[in-house]
# Entry
Amino acid sequence: MARISLQHVSKSFGGGHGPSAVKDFCLEIEDGELIVFVGPSGCGKSTTLRMIAGLEEATSGAILIGGRNVTHLPPKDRNVAMVFQNYALYPQKTVYDNMAFGLYVRGEDRKEIDRRVKAAAVSLDLEALLDRKPRQLSGGQMQRVALGRALVRDPDVFLLDEPLSNLDAKLRVKMREEIATLHARLGATMIFVTHDQVEAMTLGDRIVIMRDGVIQQAGKPLELYDRPANTFVAGFIGSPEMNLVNGQLVEDGERLAVRSGDLTLRIPENTFATQEKNVTLGIRPEHLVIADGSPLEMSVSLVEQIGAQTYLLGMIAGHKMRAVFERRDEIRSGDKVPIAFPTERLHLFSSAGGATLRKTEGRVAVHAKECA
Amino acid sequence: MTNHVETSSMTPDDQPLDQKPVRRQPSSQHQDATTGDGGSGKSFGKLAARLGLYVAVIAVCIYSFFPIYWMMISSLRPMDRLFLDSSLVFWPPDLASYTSLFQQTNYLVNFMNSVLMAVGTIVISLVLSAFIAYGATRLHFRGKTTLVASMLFAYMFPPLMLAIPMAAAFRWLGLTNSLWGLLIAHLAIALPLAVWLLWGFFKSMPFDLEEAAMVDGCSQFEAFIKVVLPLSAPGLITVGIFSFLLSWADYVFALILIMSDQKKTLPVALASLLGAHDLRWGEVLAGASLIALPLFVIFIFCYRHFVAGLSAGALKG
# Structure
């Protein structure tokens, strides 16, 4: 297992003159850490992973694995193992040979290969499938073989490129748990790429959120949830996404407040930088509360019952918002629900650029720390 | 608003899917009852269409195979009855034409020349086309598609138009009347088609497999040899069959580039039996049947791969 260091890594296609896929990526991944790259399609997360694997060459910057500069080494010399989105199992080989291939190529002793493959098969519950060809396996089984192929190699780093995206919802949850268990057992350094924020939140020791090839924020899952660095992160982490309202910072008596149309909300003292006039106010749907006697009401246009919780969509003071409550069977579409905005749950972002106005934090600070 | 109210206000088209079958049931029964006659008319039409298809297939088969059948039974007819007997079935077969062919001509030498040319063309075109096509699909360079497409340019010309300048070039290179020269000529025809076929085949193969092999410890060359090539068997077999056909059945290049009897390949050697004063049809038909025999054998054993390889090339190319 090893520490990974990505130092100002950039990637441009078209011989370095084309569009940039990754820009000045800096990150330190600790030994044994499971880090998740998450972001929308085209944000550069898979390209970054492929650069670590050696399948794409970095246009600039340096990649170090275990203190060794591997930036210009071919994939075979990096001692990394990768699980691909579509599994990439060799269709002509049996499960056993698929798992053993990497060891054969590296000239390992046959007995040692057999021991390692069988040990991996036991840990992944693949013993009964060793003689089968990939076409005879289900999606979940193929995924386990792909994991097994990585496992037997005992690599410095495991790279997983959207490994769960081809599985159905139920199997996805099961495999997610298996990967988490595997990581806990092996203590291996793992990088997991996904576009699914639930996978990111549940699996990652840390999450790196990317957009347009740039790290938006890197941190522990709840840090990102509680203190998003900008409106993009605020909207990306959390489901349903955070309610965001553009407004102006105004004085409301002795306190500062954000006003947007008929909505005026006081903000907590000494929490946000207040030199900007145009701001974006944010509150997560699950942080809104039903408060009898509140002057603010939600005119409910849609009620979604998902079992333990009730999702509402409606208008509050002329702003379309979502709210999530513990199960409320009595609420119907067309009802008016009194709503309160807990001050301590509010987020404030700059309208220009969307960076958080929370004091001492922000994307710039996070980025500077990683690149130091 | 309650769910009950919402449901009752729905138009039939708005209704949930699970309610629709109940509503639709009477109309579908009505449709079944009224289409009873129409159904039998439809099935008659289907039967007629299928019958027509069978007749067309049988007609095409007869058209294609009758000359071959005629060639084979004529080669087994007694030589003195070759022009007298036109029966399609007879017994016993007479091998006199075959015996005469082997005794009075250089058939075995010519056969070996043809085998050498065919094997050489297959092996070299397979090796070269696999590397060229793989490079063309995996490497990035400008004008790649145009380059591969232009490789088929040679097929726009009749073989004779290529053979004449080739003969001139080979004379300059000292390759006239040489089997090496003929091999190069056969490769010039077989290679572009082989590259075209494999290009389509490799394009359809996901990059992930090679990348997985490279992460597993292979160089790109090893990934190609150990992962890509074993998966390309249908494409390689198709290329092999095409190369064999082009070389084995070539007449024009062998006629123009080869002069001595000892170096002639089967088609040219066979044609030389048809002298101006001596028409040895029995031997010609026996020789032609023997030329066709390997083609049948190969096609029967490799039919599935051949079709799979062609489809991959056609769809993905």
The mean pLDDT of chain B is 81. Chain B touches chain A through 19 residues (CB under 8 Å).
